[in-house]
Design goal:
single chain, mainly alpha, Rhopdopsin 7-helix transmembrane proteins, 0% strand, globular
Length: 300
């Protein structure tokens, strides 16, 4: 049976075999259901928390556009793509368990293509923007106009939707390698940018508490992005290059859904981390103060 190496909600989607058996997301994995249970749990959580969190991020960015930072346009586009991704989760679950429709499957592949490419690329844009701002401030000043970020966002969206369309159409030889290369490349680039920024900010004063307030804010932002990278992107980066060391069934039914769902849950973790840094939401600020007073979170 031919296999498509793809990001799916619960499972790898396989090309129907020559026996003419109806298409199903579970072909070849009927006896290995742990990946299904893990994926279903992750996606339900992603949907329940990702939709309100991303909508709140979008609302804050629109409301405070007069005070926007240079990275906000990338954060806005990333939140838009994440909203699109999580609102399609119910359709995916219904198709997997009830419809078993190949046309719906094509729509799902487009959605996952958007997630596969858009997330890493826009996170890379945020890291690049922060890297230039901290490491090369003179260059950053020359290119501070929002039109440069808008143009870069358009390029990223074109690449993202082109990849998603190609994934939905299918049939491209070795297409699966594109995602592996993109994840490995962007992960390496983002880790380099973030570590360079953290190192530069730490050297700006004898201690973190003596940093300039803007540098301290940048330090926290970069640290949160680095946490996202390690938690959401390290599993596929660490596991996918060793695909040949696993049996086809184990990789398809366990390794692949496990690693991909760490990427998928970023639609929830990214907006939550962004909101945790926001100080302009009264109820959120009060919650953080209460947690601080009880010792559940470090006081600023």
């Amino acid at each position: 049976m031919a296999m498509i190496y793809t990001n799916s909600t619960l499972f790898n989607y396989s090309i129907p075999n020559i026996t003419g058996r109806p298409w199903s997301a579970f072909v070849g994995c009927e006896e290995m259901v742990a990946g299904v249970l893990f994926g279903l749990t992750v996606q339900i959580l992603n949907c329940l928390m990702g939709i309100p969190a991303n909508m709140m991020v979008l609302w804050l960015l629109v409301r405070n556009k007069g005070e926007s930072s240079t990275s906000d346009i990338f954060i806005f586009n990333l939140a838009l793509l994440d909203v699109f991704f999580v609102i399609m989760v119910p359709l995916d679950v219904v198709n997997v368990f009830f419809l078993n429709n190949k046309q719906v499957w094509g729509v799902q592949m487009f959605v996952y293509g958007v997630k596969d490419m858009g997330g890493p690329l826009f996170l890379s844009c945020i890291c690049l923007d922060r890297y230039i701002a901290v490491i090369h401030p003179i260059t950053f000043t020359r290119f501070k106009d929002h039109k440069y970020r808008a143009a870069l966002s358009v390029v990223v969206l074109v690449i993202t939707f082109a990849y998603a369309i190609a994934k939905a159409i299918g049939g491209i030889s070795h297409f699966e390698k594109i995602f592996t290369v993109i994840v490995l490349t962007t992960f390496t680039f983002m880790v380099f940018c973030n570590i360079s920024i953290l190192w530069a900010l730490k050297r700006s004063g004898p201690g973190k508490d003596e940093m300039h307030p803007m540098k301290k804010k940048a330090f926290k932002m970069v640290l949160s992005i680095l946490a996202i990278l390690v938690f959401n992107f390290l599993p596929p980066v660490a596991l996918f290059p060793f695909q040949d060391y696993y049996s086809a069934a184990v990789f398809r039914c366990y390794i692949q859904p496990f690693a991909f769902n760490f990427v998928n849950i970023s639609s929830c973790t990214q907006p939550l981390l962004y909101l945790s840094r926001v100080e302009k939401i009264p109820w959120l600020t009060n919650l953080k103060k209460k947690m601080c007073s009880t010792g559940k979170t470090p006081c600023p």
